[in-house]
Structures are given as structure tokens and as C-alpha cells.
Input
Amino acid sequence: MLEQKIKHTDREARQIALADGRRLKLDRPLVMGVINVTPDSFSDGGKATPKQWAESARTMENEGADIVDIGGESTRPGAKPVSANEEMQRVIPVIEEIRKSSTLPISIDTYKSETAKAALDAGADIINDISASRLSPDMAKLAAEKKAPLVLMHMLGTPRQMQENPHYDDCVAEIGQFFEERINYCLDQGIDRSRLVLDPGIGFGKRLSDNIEILAGLRAFGLLGLPLLVGASRKSFINMLHPTDLPANQRIGGSVAAAVVACANGADILRVHDVRQTVGALKVIRAVGEVS
Output
């Protein structure tokens, strides 16, 4: 079992080392605000200028976001891929615009090493790779060279076909084994362990039961001793639990509840669309914890 193999690392002592020397302390759950610079995001895509997207980032920062995650390709189930050039045309101007007025850590949500390199050169700090460096073998080497944190996410297959009959015998154990393999691979590529983050990939090749099992079993992944990122915000499993005809951006209650559960079960970073509501919920949890 994973619990028997890996020794737990004290949460209070952990940090994420950024390339510029800054460190993100993990003495409390961090909030990563989502900015989808795409016309076809399942949740909040649309057309806007780089200045408008940058204003969204500033709003999230004012609401309490610790990081913003910029993505230029929709990874919803069945989504078609876009070229690296098109992806860069979407995200690089936004990153550059944010950097004109903010030092807020920026994560680039991409599985393409070309996009990741351009984003880091433009001022991004973190690589968030849904493929865990499997779809672009150069990604791990790039992260090592740039000394950039790398988020390793679990996903079955690719976004286009990941929801075609996913199956696990033991979801949490199998994801844990995947993480162990990916961690060892990244260490072999020269990435410092202090710059690795794990994401179990809720909604990426997962059934409803799998998503619930992951949220309930998060502490098993924490035993790997690395920061844990959870992105359950506005995912379709919320609508499966509470079916409505409302659009994804109305799944706020379920999203905040999932964030609270993830926090209670050991998540270090919460990737969310609704920053203000999530930050408010986390402050209540922390206040109660301080007196209980």
C-alpha cells in the first residue's frame, strides 16, 4: 500500500520553490484562480483582449488568489487540440499584460513544451501539465533547466477520448502508482523534488465514483511528501450529484463544497474559478481550526 511505502512530510515545513528565488509557503491552502483564454472553455471561455484578461487576474488577486493559472486550450472531455502557435498567441500577451502591474505567481496550463518555454520567458512561474510530461517529453527537461515548478496531473489518455469508458480497479492506488513513476522520471530529468506538485486529475478520465473516491482519499497522495493540487471547480461530477439545467458557471455551491472537502483532506492548492467565494470559505475553516 502507498501508506506503507511513503513517509508523510509535515505540511507546515513544505514550500514550493520558484525559479526567481521566491517560495510559496504551504502553511495554509493556496488558491489558484483559473483564467481560460479560450473561445470554447466548458466554463468561462469567451473573447476578450489581453488587457481584459489581465484585469480578471487583478480581480482574482484582490479577491485573495495566491496564483493565477492561464490556459489557452480547452481540455474539456472531447476537446480538439490546438497548435502550439495558436496557444501561444492566446496566452503570451495575457501573461505579458499581467506582468506589467503584478508579481502574482503565474501558472501556464499547457502540455506543450514550446508554449511552456515561451510562457516562462514572458514571466510565468509554474508549469501546469495535464499530461505529467507524457505528451511532450521535453517538458521535464525544460522545467529542470528553468528551475520552474511542475504540476504532474493524472489523466487517462488525452482530453479527446479520456471519458470513453474509464475504468479502475482501485482508483486511488492506481493514481498513486502513476505518481511514483512520474516523480522518479522527473527526478531523473534533473528536476528538484521541491519543485514538483501532484494533481490527481478530477474529471480527467474519471467516473463519478472515481471523483468522489479521490476527494475522500486525498491523504493517501499526501503521503508522497509533495504538495497536492486539486481542481474540482465547476466540473461535471457536481452536476451529476445535483442535476440542473444551469450552465457550469452556476455550480458555485458544489465547487466551494468540493474545495472545502479537499482542504479538509489535505490539499495544498485549490484550483478554482470562484476565487472570492472559495477564499471566504477557507478563512472560516481556518478560523475554526485555530480555536478548536
The first helix runs from residue 2 to 5.
